[in-house]
């Protein structure tokens, strides 16, 4: 069951992402939030603290919380979320361009990444993501055909996870992620609006089903100025 403060956090976060609270707006006071949501002061403070940690608001003692200008897009490191889910509240109507969708076999890189043999097939799906009129992400997804037997173009253009979960019935469980910063390559410059940037942020993900079956390897390449990667960390004592 979701905790009360996390529920309040999600409500306020959604309002900020939908621009019901815009950059520079002041949130209601703690007392007003308690009254509006029927929440305790502790619940309100924990929700606000989490909004501060995730970069949605700025809060100073004795002053109302202020919504920050998020001209960078949050990319959740500790969650498994599709592009469609991440930008569902965006006003800019992000676009997806499918550059390639094919079946390959005997590819050394994919054999190692997906732990498959030379005779096993894999889908290669390459997409470019456009946000606010700029192409700033290349997503390269590789799916083992042992698990994903079919991958229609309509799913590639919309949401692969929605297709896999709702139509195929797969139960996606967890992912291992690795984040590095690299020099941009010729493909990055060809497909993305790189401006004067010569670096690219690369996120590699290995995604598993609930039964621990590895079915997807992803290499996501991001222009560095538009993204910040967020996580929630707790100190272990």
From TrEMBL:
One of its GO terms (biological process) is negative regulation of DNA-templated transcription. It comes from the Bacteria. Keywords: DNA-binding, Transcription, Transcription regulation. Residues 2-70 form the HTH gntR-type domain. One of its GO terms (molecular function) is DNA binding. This is Trehalose operon repressor. PROSITE patterns: HTH_GNTR (PS50949). InterPro entries: Bact_HTH_transcr_reg, Chorismate_lyase_/UTRA_dom_sf, TreR, Tscrpt_reg_HTH_GntR, UTRA, WH-like_DNA-bd_sf, WH_DNA-bd_sf. The keyword Transcription applies. It comes from Hungatella effluvii. CDD domains: WHTH_GntR. Gene3D superfamilies: Chorismate lyase-like, Winged helix-like DNA-binding domain superfamily/Winged helix DNA-binding domain.
């Amino acid at each position: 069951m979701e905790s009360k403060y996390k529920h309040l956090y999600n409500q306020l976060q959604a309002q900020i992402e939908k621009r019901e609270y815009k950059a520079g707006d002041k949130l209601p006071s703690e007392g007003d939030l308690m009254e509006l949501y029927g929440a305790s002061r502790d619940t309100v403070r924990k929700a606000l603290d989490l909004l501060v940690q995730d970069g949605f608001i700025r809060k100073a003692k004795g002053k109302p919380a202020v919504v920050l200008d998020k001209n960078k897009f949050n990319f959740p490191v500790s969650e498994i979320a599709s592009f469609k889910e991440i930008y569902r509240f965006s006003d800019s109507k992000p676009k997806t361009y499918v550059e390639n969708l094919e079946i390959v076999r005997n590819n050394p890189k994919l054999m190692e990444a997906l732990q498959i043999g030379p005779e096993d097939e894999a889908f290669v799906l390459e997409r470019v993501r456009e946000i606010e009129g700029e192409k700033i992400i290349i997503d390269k997804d590789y799916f083992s055909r042992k698990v994903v037997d079919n991958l229609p173009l309509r799913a590639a253009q919309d949401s692969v996870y929605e297709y896999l979960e709702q139509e195929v019935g797969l139960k996606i469980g967890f992912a291992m992620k690795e984040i590095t910063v690299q020099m941009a390559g010729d493909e990055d410059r060809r497909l993305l609006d790189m401006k004067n940037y010569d670096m690219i942020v690369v996120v590699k993900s290995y995604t598993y089903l609930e039964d621990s079956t590895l079915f997807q390897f992803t290499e996501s390449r991001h222009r560095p100025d538009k993204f910040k990667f967020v996580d929630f960390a707790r100190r272990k004592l």
